[in-house]
Design brief:
4 copies of one chain form a homotetramer. By secondary structure, chain A is of the alpha/beta class. Chain A has helices spanning 11-22, 50-53, 112-125, 149-162, 195-201, 218-230, 258-265, 274-278, 284-293, 320-337; strands at 2-5, 26-32, 37-43, 59-63, 83-86, 92-95, 101-105, 129-131, 166-169, 184-187, 208-211, 236-240, 270-272, 298-302. Chain A has 2 domains: 2-63, Phospho-2-dehydro-3-deoxyheptonate aldolase, domain 1 (Alpha-Beta Plaits, 2-Layer Sandwich); 74-337, Aldolase class I (TIM Barrel). In chain A, the strands form 3 sheets. An 8-stranded parallel beta sheet of chain A has the order 13-12-11-10-9-8-7-14. In chain A, strand 5 and strand 6 form a beta hairpin. The longest helix of chain A has 18 residues, at 320-337.
């Protein structure tokens, strides 16, 4: 961390400030220029609040050189992390480090018939995981809020019928007890900065699929992962799912540059959600392919056997035949990129 | 709600679609044009999901005429709501309906000395309420997270010493039990769409100060209020505190147009936070005055007796003398606007 | 265009309003509901200003069903447009309708040596066009503003040496006279809404590469194309080059969803600029591949033989060897997507 | 400017880099730390391109301490600038340095009757300047583009009838010849980064009212002013008129924090346009008052005698009676703020 001191500051004051900083377990390198003094902080500066320093009357500007995250940082963990999910028949299905994870299924679990039918369809097309929501975050209190625990039960039935590991969203920590059979816990965009929830999740042993908040920076996403990892967990999958911008032709703006950036900064796997990221079913195949081309470790997308009757997000769900056709293309892309699918 | 049907749709299909809509307790007004058919939905459409309708193959576009919120809507509650907080000596202090609420205090409670000193200073300058954080949402797990319950205890001591009602942020519903003495519960920007928390708060009898998420639309803020109100509560104070935009010279962009807009759409009081809204202490007085000029029902701002040593948000805290000087101007502004201060 | 009339409006007033609308060469379809009257405007509504209508005291909301652009609209020109640029040796090089256009070269022309060396390198790697700036839009009046006419002369020399058609940016209409040998005229992001310039360009017979303004919607980009096309030209190439968002880890946020969207709405070719779209050279290959996967008709990117000494945009330029390696991947992607490269 | 060098860089290479920098008329202060070397550039760094430096393989990060603008910078011109516009009867009307400029009139000049009627109404209510557009930047080539030169003639007639100095927008430099009688030349938001136009305006002797581009940072606005000032002019009025954000309940988001920020960074007067800044006539009075409270040196707003029939922007125009009532409030606000109106 580099601190530029205001011009004309008294040497005595700078020394006092510098001494105060050294009490925070960093070493201050002191460079007195003819015009401006610059302090260089050496050591672990992740616990030093750059914005707080900015309040000091001596400080002109603060520049962070070191990233504010440690456990999620590739610098300290150069090789790719891989998330392995055990399969009922033995072995495991992986995401990251060369393995593409394809997670497909309906936005919401609506009935046994629906979830089993979709599960079989996506399995046959080559999906590796089944997704389905039981607890749904909805903008309106008057909208369908998901089937709750009953929905999870049906999802588990579909898992048993197909052998696909399952992914479902957890909205509050007290729901954890009913997530026993869920293989990957999804944390939604609106909860990405629910810091109390993130802290609690650090004690959870299951893999966490952490979606980027729709107005959070990539650095904030890595800091959210850091919250969970600081609690002890290290099985995190990052997910780009679109950010909020001035243009509204898509529900969100899918920020695919986040894929190479996150993979450079962190060792964690990065997947993409082209369904929520665009909100338009006809655009999903193009953006799913683009995600793989950009280097993603997988995709999560919505497949519904009857999008028009979906209780939630029908406008962004593709049908099983469209999904099957997309999977054929993705296999070719995976081959070029040297990934297992 | 108005639904434009795609050109060339079969009359039979439109009739079926229309019949299905009527099962949702609305009446469908059917207007067959020479080029395009338009359906008008009459009745309470708040429970109808416009985006889901968009998934139907017959639908060209959906236009919502009625607002998606009811209890927060001024249409059904034309007079201003006023939030009354009882005072220890009897009577009440009010926010809304002509009464300005001035809420001041440090970002975080740091010590008995600090909170009592600031409390007395802001009281003498004319503040109506004392703010102070005990549980702090921080972007980094390595930053100071607040004093927790101990901080609340100190805040209550300052309340007893000064008679000022207190405002503090609640981050998770299980903290509610220690908020007994807190007069107004603040819900922070990052929890504005924590729907599980909002639902639980509906059962709470205390006033809720609901901050706008830094990337939430004003309609989403009103929908968040609706979540709480749907649970039974009706004592909500809305708070504009800056939104995230492309420009970063201020921490957030204070969106003062939200004040007249929210007050036109809703009967709830609207206050402004110029401290978080700008992140720059020297800008706080200008923006506090602008907030009152724009029609706000109050302000909440950070005052610290020693901003340079603040453990949190020092760069946006003003000192007691600056606050006292600001209060003199605000009194003149209140008079012009015909508000009580 | 559909106009919802305010509840309680007098029938007589609505009739007058309706009659006034009919004088603008549209037919008004009149649907009187029990609760709300809705007017449907049938005919060419591109010349009707929806925002102006919103000012009328009878109007609740206005919903545009028809797109505001005509000549750029795929609805009236279902087949893909193809831009052919004649080659000196006869024949033409194409962009669009199945042909990928690869445009590569330095941000600025800096010297004969530099531009010829880069031109030969990109030609050998398989580029179809050479780019190079002579007039540079710079945020600071104190930055290098390009070599001007002398730069164009050198670019033309490189064209003669390699046979590659050339692309260069025009900043003001009075520069047109020196663009005689330039094959494709680029209009930069900051001039996308310079309406006077767009009108003048309508009379120009050369193909126009129109870059999306960094804060313009895709609809505004199509309206800018419409300005040029309304003047008579129809040889426009649209270019996505990143939009301004809250996150700043990339210089701009490359909005790849714009590719499938623009291609669905318009018949014009769509290319992508991953260099300006990210501002980071190491990210360019990933995003170039993602652009082709998303369905783009080509890419334009910056290649410099010595990025560290570039007078402009060195941080986003790739070197000739990186470009050559990228081209090998792009050929495989083109094959999967069924495009000629 | 401070440059952090990458860890592990060779001393010899750093010395060469440093020597190269010194050839650009700055002195390099060399601070070799145990972990990281930091270079401090002392002197006029406005001509050094921070982004270009970022391309160098030795560079970790670049931090600009000095602002990139000089002539617009308050640092080198501590006292407020005041723009004086001569009046026909002798004397001058001022904006800045304690004088509030109130500029009112219709979006477009539509007829002699209209412009004279509005001019007299705003004069009687206390406006200091008359605005009216003759050349209109419109998103659609099919919308009304203004009356052109004929409109300017009518505006000059209104000036003669009322004695009010006039303000009108110039869209291209070749229009300058017909702006002889215009007192203040307005440059619209979409032309704020039309650098060729800005350079030419530097030679113009009239005051320039420079509107902030709707997606330009405040620093970019100051750099645009710098372009004009680098050409020799120093009579610039900056204007905040709303920025583009994710929320669309207002046409733009009026960024009132820009007022105190620009006034701190620059000596130039700063005014606010609440009409374009909100797009909603009923919101204009609140935001006009807030602008003055925030410290603005004036406002520019749209007044139309018949907003419903306005050919342009009727939805954001207030009527003469609303304007007269607003002026009464503004006089009280001006008094509190110690400004002349």
């Amino acid at each position: 961390m580099i601190i530029a001191i205001k011009r004309g500051a008294a040497a005595e004051e700078i020394r006092e400030f510098s001494a105060a900083l050294e009490q925070r377990e960093v070493k201050v390198h002191f460079s007195e220029g003819t015009i401006q003094t610059v302090l260089g902080l050496v050591g672990d500066t992740t616990a030093i609040d750059a914005e707080a320093l900015q309040a000091h009357h001596l400080v002109e500007k603060v520049m962070r050189v070191q990233e504010p995250y440690k456990r999620a940082n590739r610098l300290f963990h150069p090789e790719d992390s891989r998330i392995d999910v055990p399969l009922p028949e033995g072995g495991a299905r992986s995401i990251g480090a060369g393995s593409l994870g394809i997670i497909a299924g309906p936005c919401s679990v609506e009935s046994r018939e629906q979830i089993v039918e979709v599960a079989e369809a996506v399995k046959n097309a080559g999906a590796g995981f089944l997704r389905g929501g039981a607890f749904k975050p909805r903008t309106s209190p008057y909208s369908f809020q998901g089937m709750g625990t009953g929905g999870l039960d049906l999802l588990v039935e579909a898992k048993k019928a197909t052998g696909l590991p399952i992914v479902s969203e957890l909205m509050a920590i007290n729901q954890l007890e009913v997530f026993d059979e869920v293989d990957i816990i999804q944390i939604g965009a609106r909860n990405m900065q629910n810091f109390n929830l993130l802290k609690e999740l650090g004690r959870c042993k299951k893999p966490i699929l952490l979606k980027r908040g729709y107005s959070c920076t990539v650095t904030e996403l890595l800091m959210a992962a850091e919250y969970v990892m600081a609690g002890g967990s290290d099985r995190i999958i990052l997910c780009e799912r679109g950010i909020r911008t001035f243009d509204t032709y898509t529900r969100n703006t899918l920020d695919l540059s986040a894929v190479p950036f996150l993979k450079r900064q962190s060792h964690l796997p990065v997947i993409v959600d082209p369904s929520h990221g665009t909100g338009l079913s006809w655009m999903v195949p193009s953006m799913a392919k683009a995600a793989i081309a950009a280097g993603a470790d997988g995709i999560i997308l919505e497949v519904h056997n009857n999008p028009e009757k979906a209780l939630c997000d029908g406008e962004q769900s593709i049908t099983p035949p469209v999904f099957a056709s997309l999977m054929k293309d993705l296999k070719k892309y995976a081959e070029i990129e040297g990934k297992k699918l």
